[in-house]
Specification:
single chain, mainly alpha, 208 residues, globular
Length: 208
């Protein structure tokens, strides 16, 4: 049987997953401080569990201990074997703090760990946009889309650039390519529909 969050205030379990689940639940209701306590407990039970360490670091960032959390997240990800949403979270968190150089370093570190991935190229583009280099950012986004045509984050970024220069046809083509690469990609369909609504074409939106 499951245990309530309140019951975990007292000792009695050494299951790291239970504490991590409680931490996730607390994060969902906005209790970031207590969530961090549960993630710390989970990490202390299984200190070699990379996913728990990532959750703990993200929780630290969310609970206000941003600098230490970011440092810990960078340390944990440096040993990871594959790219993940945590890498994206790290880069975006650094950009939110206007740490452009550190964000770039994080992308470079990710490239060394997992060279040639779509997520890395896309994040490189995001950082370049933050640095004000739109032409280079577009090249990076296009590289991500070429590596993985169904990779929606890159398509979305390219659509924004297309719309900024008034090229609706190019924007539509981005999502068409993503949907063609993965005909079951519901998120791409939704993004395409939202684009058509933005462009004022309700018939096309319904067709998607």
């Amino acid at each position: 049987r499951g245990r309530s969050v309140a019951s975990l205030e007292n000792p009695g379990t050494e299951d790291a997953r239970v504490y991590a689940t409680a931490g996730t639940a607390l994060m969902a209701v906005g209790d970031k401080v207590r969530a961090n306590e549960f993630f710390e407990k989970a990490a202390s039970i299984k200190p070699a569990d990379t996913q728990l360490q990532i959750q703990r670091a993200i929780s630290m960032i969310g609970s206000g201990d941003g600098d230490l959390g970011l440092q810990e997240l960078q340390t944990v990800l440096a040993a990871a074997k594959s790219a993940s949403r945590a890498d994206e979270y790290l880069v975006l968190s650094l950009l939110q703090q206007n740490e452009l150089d550190r964000a770039w370093e994080a992308v470079e570190a990710l490239e060394k760990r997992t060279p040639g991935t779509a997520i890395t190229s896309n994040l490189r583009g995001v950082v370049l946009m933050a640095k004000g280099d739109e032409p280079a950012a577009k090249v990076a986004f296009e590289a991500a889309a070429a590596k993985e045509p169904g990779f929606l984050p890159a398509a979305k970024n390219l659509v924004q650039l297309d719309l900024a220069r008034g090229d609706a046809a190019a924007a539509r083509a981005r999502y068409a390519t993503a949907m063609a690469a993965d005909k079951e990609n519901v998120q791409a369909m939704m993004a395409g529909g939202e684009l058509e609504l933005l462009l004022g074409d309700k018939d096309r939106a319904r067709a998607l």
